[in-house]
Structure formats: C-alpha cells, structure tokens
Amino acid sequence: MRLRGGFFCAMPRCYRSVTDAEYVSDRMTTLPIHPATTPHAVPAPAPTPQSEWRTLRGTNVGDRLYRATLTALALVLPLLLVTLLAELVVGAWPAIKRFGLPFVWTSVWDPVAGVFGAAPMIFGTLASSLLALLIAVPLALGVAIYLTEFSPKWLRQPIAFLVELLAAIPSVVYGLWGIFVLIPFLRSYVVPPLRATLGWTPLFGGVFYGNSLLAGGIILAIMIVPYIAAVSREVLLAVPASQREAALGMGATRWEAVWTAVVPYGRAGLIGAVILGLGRALGETMAVTMVIGNRHDISLSVLQPAYTMAAAIANEFSEAVSDLHLAAMFEVGLVLFVVTVIVNACARLLIWRVARGTAVGSRAL
Amino acid sequence: MKHTKLALLASAALALAAPAAAQVKLNGAGATFPNIIYQDWMLTYNKAHPDVQLNYQSIGSGGGIRQFSDGTVDFGGSDAPMSDSAIAAIQGNVLHIPTVLGAIVITYSVPGVSQQLKFTPDLIADIFLGKVTKWNDARLTSVNPGASLPATDIVVVHRSDGSGTSYGFTDYLSKVSSDWAQKVGKGTSVNWPVGLGGKGNEGVAATVNQTPGGIGYVELAYATSNKMAYGQVRNSAGKYITPALPSVTAALAGALKTLSPTTDFRISITNPDGADAYPIATMTWLLVHKTYSDLAKARALVQFIWWAETDGQARANELGYAALPSQLRPWIETRLKSISVDGKPVWTTAAR
Predict the structure, then answer these.
(1) Which of A207, A296, A319 is facing B188, going by the closest CB pair?
(2) Which end of chain B, C or N, has fewer beta carbons within 10 A?
C-alpha cells in the first residue's frame, strides 16, 4: 500500500513523478485518470530520434516476447470480464426472453409457478449497502482521522492492526456472531428505544423479529469498516505536512485543520476508499444471508426482513430444478453485475470530478 | 507430429496392458440430506470391493438432477423426484431407486412452554400461511390443553435455500390444506406467504432458537442430534405421533398399500395411512439410467445399489435415517434387474 515514487501512465514512454495527492487519487481508483485530464502532466522528455528507437525495439527477440507476454497478460482480465458477461447473458436468456425488462421491477418470486421478479432483491442489495455505508463511513473516517492526526504514537500501530484484523475474519463467523450476539442485543437494547422515539416514521415501523435489514446493514458495516479505515488512513498519511502546517499557521485549531486542509486534500482518495467498501458490501453473501431474513419483500422499514441478490443466488442456485428457475438465478447474477458496474461508474465519475478539483488546487500550491 | 504418434502408441500399449478386472470408478452427485449414509456406504463397500471406487458429491438435488441428465455423473441423488418434463428431456432413461427415509419435524421456541406441543395438519398449514399469528390462538390452546401458551407473536422460519426438506414439508402441506396447494404449492423453493428464511437446517434452528415465538421445520436427525424441542403431529388416523425412525418406516409401509409393484417410485409418502405413521416423512432417491453403455460400470453400480438396499440398510438407524420397509425390496430388485447394456440386463452376476 505504501509504495511511493513514480507512476507509469497509460501512454508509452511517459514516466513521470507524481505528487502525493495525485499518487493517492490514482491509486484509489480502479482505472488511471487519463493523462489528458491532469493538467500538469510532466511532458515526456524528448526521446532519442524516432527511427533509431524503432529499429532498436524491433530487433530484440527477448524484448518482443516480453512485450507480447505482458500484452497477453494485460488482456486476460478484460477478456475474462467479457466472457463472464456473455456467460451470464447466455445462462439468463430463457428468463430474459420470458420476463423481459419487468424482471427488474416486479416483486413476485414463485419458483413453483415459474414467476420471477427480482425487485425485492435489488432493493435489498442497495438498501443494505447504503445502510452499511451510513454506519461505516463516519466510523471508519473517525478511526482514520484519529490514527493519523490525534492518537499518541504508541497507540497508532496497535489500533490500525486491530482494525485491519477485522478484515481477516471469515464472513460466516460474522454471520454467527450476528445471529447469536448482534440480533439479541438489537432486540433488547437498540430497537425498543428506536421504536419509542422514531416508531412513527415508516423507517422503523412493523414488528421486529430480529433478522432484518438493520441487522444486515450493521453486519455489513462492521465488515467494510476495516477496508475504508485502512485505505483512508493511507490517504490521510499521504497528505503533505505542509497542508496541516499552513492551516495551523493561519490560526486554525487541530479540528479545523483536519476539516479544512487535510480531508479536502485527500477527498478523491477518501471517496475511493468508500467505493471500495461499497463494492464489498454489494457482493457480500454469507454473513448477510444469515441475518437479513431472506424475505422477498420490499419494506421501507429497516426493522423488516429483506433479501439481497448475492444471498438469493447462494441460497437457491444449487437446488434450482426447473430450467426457468435456473435462468432466473443467472439473470439475478447479471443484474448484480450490472448494478455493480453502474455503481462503480457513478463512483468513477464522482472521483473524476473531485480529482479535477484537487489537481487545480494542488497546482495553486 | 512424431511426438503425438508416439504418445498415441504409448497410450494404446497402456490400455492393452491394463488388467482385465480394472478399477471401476463411479461418480455420483446430488442431494445433501442422504450424504452421510452414502459416504458411509461407499467407504464400507469399497473395503469389501477394492476394485470399485465410488464418489458422491453432495451438491444439492437440483444440481444432482442436472448433472445426471447431462451425463457428467453416472448416478444422481435427489430428495425430490424428477418432473415429467425433466424425464422427457432425457427420453425417460431414468429409474428412481429409493434408498433411505427421513422425517421433518416442527421445531419451536415458545417462552414459558417446556412440554411437547401438539399440532394438527390444518394448524400447521394455517401457521405457515400466516392465518394463525399468536401462540395463544384458540385453536392452538384447544389441542394443547395443558400448556400455558403466551400471547407471543408466532414467527415463522423457513428454509431460504432450495432444499429437499422444503420439498417434503410443502408436499405435506399441499396434501393437508387445499388453501396451501392453491396459493403456494410444493417445491424445493416456494413463495413463502410469511416468515423469515434461514440457510440450511442450522440456519432455521438458530433463528427459531434465537427468536421468542419462533416456529420452523428441520430434519429429524438434525433436531435429535441438537436436542431441539419438536412437536407431535396428528396423522391421518387421528393419532398424535412423536416423530421417530420407526414411525417413519411405518409411514412408507402405509403409503405402499396404495401402490402397485409397478410404480416408478416417484411417490410421496407424506400424510400416509397407518395408525403409527408419522405424517411428514420423506424419501430420498438414487437416480440411475435404464440403459448404460459401459458394462463394467453398470454392473458395479447395480451391485453397489443392491448391497445398499440389503446389507447397507442396517446402518441407517445408527446414522439417523429410517430404513426402507422390507416389503419394498422385491420391487427394487425388479427395477435393478431391468438395467441393461446393449439390450442385455447387467443383473445376472449381481449377487456377489
């Protein structure tokens, strides 16, 4: 994670050094920002005369082999992605043909009658992930800011280590913990006061059985905190000390320095951290299915059971007997794929806009 | 070119050199419910017949039927019989061979109730339909006069994963409640009218135990080995039966009375006749082809299955399954005798 130094951009023969912030904003995203959009890309040093370079490049067999190998390796992943998508579409085709687009917004899921609509699962996937982000982002950012800005030196490593350790716990263990610890705790200590104060809103209505969107969201939040916290911490560590010093020098308090100088400087990276967590939340299966209640229903209340796409696939795929049921499962997989792509695309757009701002800001330095 | 020719020659030589009584490898896949006894059978059988190697993967009934139909495995395992359309898709080239029986019990956790509760069929159906919603419902208290049932909400818990257990349970409910048959039907996964979904027996068990007022269904073997509370169910003879292995075997014996020896075994043994029969009993099948192309394989498979149906049955009770009633044996024998390779039955030397 803490690699420093140069960065190979997408254009050949262009090696440039980057500032910390730029490094971070590039690292935190899945695709490099196109060099043309970063206004201060260092122009490549004038290469040796073109003809000479070409002849050199063409002759060496080892070099050519190396180049071909790397190209092949680089193409494997996109190819895999395309194959995956094709496989999903082929598998889902009977269901796509039968149900068409309404598959996405109808909510009857009846394997006996052969009627399938995935709206409750799509809703549940998005709602549980959103709930998880609402809980995890403040928590993880708090941990990261505390560790980089406020904590005594001796405490940093132990806390960082323990938080990252959370990522190593298998999700089925989280699920068990959810059933035996979290749900009873919610039932006796969290939900009664919640209902007493906010029970009149649709968000907290209905009877609480334990397994619910709330329990699923909290489990997911705990699972994604280590990812967001670890990446955010790296981002904040990469913010140059001069930023803090400048803010403090102008009379800002520690708090103001963090919020006006440090966090805005690293915001592209921080959003990247959140997106990483979101991606994990969207795809999580085991822990969620153990606590979310697995109910094909759309309810606004977080106290009601729900379902997610990943959980449904894990639950029903192995016993899907009829071809249509199987195809419907494939289509759920396809929808999950598409939802993930859309979410990531939105995130890229966000980061791209934010990163542009950062770049302008850093040029002003 | 030369290399490939050499390799071909070498492999041909190897094939010729192989001993006549070569290893026979049989692969199967399917239902998870009978997995424990299948593994036990295969291990024991392999000790007595080292030349036969058996392998069973418990990937679920749906997967078992698919792999069997695609021909990727030699035999399948399923807790739900193949549908007519699935059988037609493989030109009817399948036999359902029952192996062992199981039962599904109604498990519950009601605060303040320690005695075994009694359930009538229509009560179970109405609870799972969401029509009976409180534990102190008049219909519940009238069949459980001694129990002090609280005014707690009933929280229905069902399997979220597709499963043979759900198939058996919904098959039973479809038989005892026309309402259920109409609104929900039977299947390995169905559109549950109410309730929470738990993954696997363990998921249902944990959710029921952790939820005051919870009620669910799990396999008998799972419930007994985990010392869970489960209820008596009234059978078609009007008697309340505690689920136990003998009452499950009695269920099949009761169901057999209505069958002819030529049945294809795609029968349901839920809600059978018989005063001692537990009504929510299930059967699990091995799926085998009627015709095979490999004589050695087919013969080994038939021999193994016949061994499982005879000597193997002794292991059932110990492992938590109910054995098949002995009246069934000659029927199964007839089926196994009909398995053929190139039109010739493979049974002839089956007794070994």
Answers:
(1) A319
(2) N
**Biggest alpha carbon distance in chain B?**
87
Interface of A with B (CB under 8 A): 108-113, 179-180, 183-184, 207, 209-211, 289-290, 293-296, 305, 307, 311, 314-322, 325-326
> pLDDT tens across B31-76, in order?
888 998 999 999 999 999 999 999 999 888 888 888 999 999 999 9
| Cβ pair A111:B160 closer than 8 A | no
Which pLDDT tens digit goes with each residue over B236-264?
999 999 999 989 988 888 888 888 888 88
Residue B178 burial by Cβ neighbours in a 10 Å radius (0-12, 13-18, 19+): exposed
Q: With an 8 Å Cβ cutoff, are A321 and B155 in contact?
A: no
* Cβ-defined contact of B199 to A180 (cutoff 8 Å): no
| CATH placement of domain A96-355 | 1.10.3720.10
Q: Does the beta carbon of B316 lie under 8 angstroms from any beta carbon of chain A?
A: no
Q: How far apart are CA B300 and CA B53, in angstroms?
A: 9
- Contacts for A167 with CB less than 8 Å, ≥ 6 apart: A223, A226, A227, A230
**Domain spans of chain A, in order of start:** 1-38, 96-355
Over the stretch B154-176, which tens digit does the pLDDT of each residue have?
A: 999 999 988 889 999 999 999 99
* Predicted pLDDT of residue B242: 92
For residues B128, B130, B134 and B140, what is the CA-based torsion angle, rounded to 10 degrees?
-50
| Planar angle of CA B140, B170, B287, nearest 5 degrees | 145
Residue of A109, A179, A326 with shortest CB distance to B206? A179
| pTM of structure | 0.80
Question: Which stretches of B71-157 are DSSP H helices?
Answer: 84-89, 121-129, 138-143
In one letter, which amino acid is A159? I
Under-50 pLDDT residues of chain B: 1-2, 4, 6, 8-20, 350-352
The residues pairing with A116 across neighbouring beta strands, listed in sequence order, are: A109
Q: Flag if A111 and B187 touch (Cβ within 8 Å).
A: yes
Q: Which long-range contacts (CB under 8 A, 24 or more apart) does A192-195 make?
A: A195/A303
Which of helix, strand or coil describes residue B179? helix
Query: How many whole angstroms separate alpha carbon A226 and alpha carbon A273?
Result: 10
Considering only alpha carbons, which residue of chain A is nearest residue B79? Answer: A319
Choose among B160, B185, B211: nearest Cβ to A294.
Answer: B160
Q: Exposure pattern of B129-146 as b/e (b: 16+ CB <10 Å)?
A: beebeebebeebeeebee
Q: Which of A39, A36, A37, A43 is nearest to A17 (CA)?
A: A43
| Integer CA distances (angstroms), A350 to A31, A188, A200, A363, B134, in order | 13, 40, 35, 20, 50
